[in-house]
Design brief:
This protein has 98 residues and is α+β, with helices and mostly antiparallel strands. It has one domain. 16% of the residues lie in helices and 10% in strands. The protein has 2 helices and 4 strands. The strands form 2 sheets. Strands 1-2 form a two-stranded antiparallel sheet. β3 and β4 form a beta hairpin. The longest helix is centred in the middle third of the chain and has 11 residues. It is globular. It starts with 15 loop residues before the first helix and ends in a 24-residue tail after the last strand. The relative contact order is 0.23. Keywords: DNA-binding, Metal-binding, Zinc, Zinc-finger. This is THAP-type domain-containing protein. GO terms for molecular function: DNA binding; zinc ion binding.
């Protein structure tokens, strides 16, 4: 069974082609608090990750990876932050006047 990225609008799935492009897949954290942060970051209504839910490396910054060993791992405490949300899911930015 193929594994797909859980991010909104992302069509990456774990296969030979994505591996060749250098895309890695990462399971959601097991701890309740960290998993909840990832779920909220995705901005998907009523979304709840299970033990097989994954997100691809395209939703993390380069410096958030530990590439020292054979396996590419995420550094401790990292939350996905790179998404291409449609307008209705964009967060509004409040600008303060000086």
């Amino acid at each position: 069974m193929p594994d797909f990225c859980a991010a909104y609008g992302c069509s990456n799935r774990r296969c030979v082609a994505t591996k060749a492009r250098g895309i890695t897949f990462h399971l959601f954290p097991k701890t309740k608090e960290r998993r909840r942060k990832w779920e909220l970051a995705l901005r998907r209504k009523d979304f709840s990750a299970n033990n097989r839910t994954m997100i691809c490396s395209e939703h993390f910054r380069r410096e958030e990876f530990d590439r020292t060993g054979q396996t590419v791992r995420l550094k401790e405490g990292v939350v996905p932050s790179i998404f291409n949300f449609p307008a209705h899911l964009q967060r509004s930015v409040c600008l303060q006047s000086l």
